[in-house]
C-alpha cells in the first residue's frame, strides 16, 4: 500500500520517530472516520533483522547487511501493508532501489528525514542503554561524513518531510501522502520482468525436435501434398498442431536448420532470464504453436 523511508545520521533518533509514526498511523487506521481497506503497519530496521552495528565497520559486511534489509522490504511490501523502513538509508542509490520496488508494486511513497547535529548523535550514541549496540566512534564519524542527504528535488526522495530532534512528527502530512498521494505506474526500468520456467530450455529443445520428427513422418505419409497436414506429437495425446507444408518434399537438413534457428532465438531470451512482456508461457503446447508459426513463415515454397 505504501513505503515510508526514514533517513538520517546514525543515532539521530530515527527509531524513536519510526515508533511514533507507527503509533500515529495505527491510530488513524482505527478511527471511525477511516473507511479504507484494512491495513497493517510494519517497521523494518537493523534491530528487527538482528543486524549488528559493527557491520558498518567493514564495507564487505555492510553490503550483505543492506541486502538483508532490501530482501525484507521486498517480502513485506503489499497492498495491505504500510512499510516503514527505519534505517540510515544514507546512500541515495539504495533509496532509489527502494523507490523502484515500490513503483513496481504501485505503492505510494514518502521520505522522512530526521535531522540532528553530529554532536548530538555522538552524545546519544555514547549513552545507549544496557544491551543496546553502539557504533565504533570512527565508524560513526565515517557514516556521518558519507551521508547523502535526501532532496525533494529527486523523485525517489519525494515527497520529503523533514523533522528535527525537537519537532513533532508530521503525521498528518505523511498520512495524506500515503493515502492520497500519486501512484506512479511502473516503467520499463521498474516493471517486473517475466521469468521463464526452470524447465523452459528442455521443453523448447524436446518439443521442437519432436515436431521435426513428426512433420517428416507426416510428410512421408502424405507424399508431400502439403496444405493442412495435422501433426500429432507423441509427447501429448492432446497436442495436435496443424501446419501447412509446401507442395514439395521438405528435406531433413532444412528442417534441422530451421529448428536450430528457432531454438537459438528463444534460448537467448531464456538464458537472459526474461521472455517477452506479458504472461510467460513456454509449455509444450505453446512451443509447438510458436514453432509451427516460425516454420510456416520460413519454409520456402
UniProtKB/TrEMBL annotation:
<keyword id="KW-0067">ATP-binding</keyword>
<dbReference type="GO" id="GO:0005524">
    <property type="term" value="F:ATP binding"/>
</dbReference>
<dbReference type="GO" id="GO:0006357">
    <property type="term" value="P:regulation of transcription by RNA polymerase II"/>
</dbReference>
<keyword id="KW-0547">Nucleotide-binding</keyword>
<comment type="similarity">
    <text>Belongs to the KTI12 family.</text>
</comment>
<protein>
    <recommendedName>
        <fullName>Chromatin associated protein KTI12</fullName>
    </recommendedName>
</protein>
<dbReference type="Pfam" id="PF08433">
    <property type="entry name" value="KTI12"/>
</dbReference>
<dbReference type="InterPro" id="IPR027417">
    <property type="entry name" value="P-loop_NTPase"/>
</dbReference>
<dbReference type="InterPro" id="IPR013641">
    <property type="entry name" value="KTI12/PSTK"/>
</dbReference>
<comment type="subunit">
    <text>Interacts with the elongator complex.</text>
</comment>
<dbReference type="GO" id="GO:0006400">
    <property type="term" value="P:tRNA modification"/>
</dbReference>
